[in-house]
Each structure stands twice: as C-alpha cells, then as structure tokens.
Amino acid sequence: MSLLESITTLFRGKSAGANGSAGKGGADQRRMRRIPQRMRSGFLWTEKLITPRACMIKDLSVSGARVEILGDSIKPALLVDGVRLYFDTEKHEVPCSVAWMKGSMMGLKFEGRPRPPTRKYK
C-alpha cells in the first residue's frame, strides 16, 4: 500500500477516539486512527545532520508517524528546526516536527504534504 493510499484510507476510517479503544492509561487520546506498519523503511534528515539517518516507520496516521531510528541515536538539539521523513518505497518526503522522543523511538507530526525528495537519500 502506497503512502498516499494509506493516508486516504485513514481519512475514510473512524478516528481512534470514536471507536472506544483504550490504551494502558485509560481512554486513547489520539485524534486520528493509526495504521501499524511492517518493514516500511525510510530516512530522517535535517540540515544539521551530515547524512540521512535510516529509520523504520512503525505507525502511520494522517497527522504523523512513529519511527524507530536505526543505529546511534540522534541528539535532540539537532532536531529542533524540524526534520524530513523520506518514505523509501514511495520515494516521497514529508516535512515534520518532533512531537516526542524516547530512546530510539520518535513521534513525528507532519507539517506538510508528501512531495518529491529535495535531496538524494542512501
């Protein structure tokens, strides 16, 4: 399923809060439904990084994604100005801001629409 098809599917689906799902701490606070991803690879990049960092996209929603950074962690100070998430299979990138970080996991909020890449990845 392509990135645009995934996002279109989310628009047509119900939000997580509307279906009454609950997480560990009670009611789920998400406004948009998430789609778990399997083996979807990508890259994170910002002007402050020397090279793009490989990542695995774990969850995807209309408003953002949860990614796992592969290899060494990234210092939070390098991510302050936002990042670009590149979807390897669709060959598109999305401008993002970092919503949260915990170890090698990171929550990203999409700040724009998918577009052709502005640089070479890999």
Q: How many helical stretches?
A: 1
Q: Give the helix level as a range of percent.
A: under 10%
Flag low-confidence runs: 14-23
- CATH C-level category: Mainly Beta
CATH topology: Thrombin, subunit H
CATH architecture classification: Beta Barrel
Number of domains: 1
What would the principal axes of the Cα set say about the shape?
globular
Beta-strand content bin: 35-45%
Order of helices and strands: HEEEEEEEE
The side-by-side strand order for the widest beta sheet comes to 3-4-5-8-7-6
User: What is the strand tally?
Assistant: 8
| Structural class category | mainly beta
Taking all Cα atoms into account, the compactness measure Rg is 14 Å
CATH superfamily: predicted glycosyltransferase like domains
Average pLDDT score: 80
User: How is the biggest beta sheet arranged?
Assistant: 6 strands, antiparallel, barrel
Intertermini distance: 22 Å
Structure, explained:
- The structure is a single chain.
- By secondary structure, the protein is mainly β.
- Helix content is 8%, strand content 42%.
- The protein contains 1 helix and 8 strands, in the order H-E-E-E-E-E-E-E-E.
- It has one helix spanning 3-12, and strands at 22-23, 26-27, 35-45, 53-60, 64-69, 83-87, 92-102, 105-110.
- It has a single domain, classed as Thrombin, subunit H, CATH 2.40.10.
- The chain is globular.
- The protein has a 6-stranded antiparallel barrel. The protein has a two-stranded antiparallel ribbon with strand order 1-2.
- The relative contact order is 0.19.
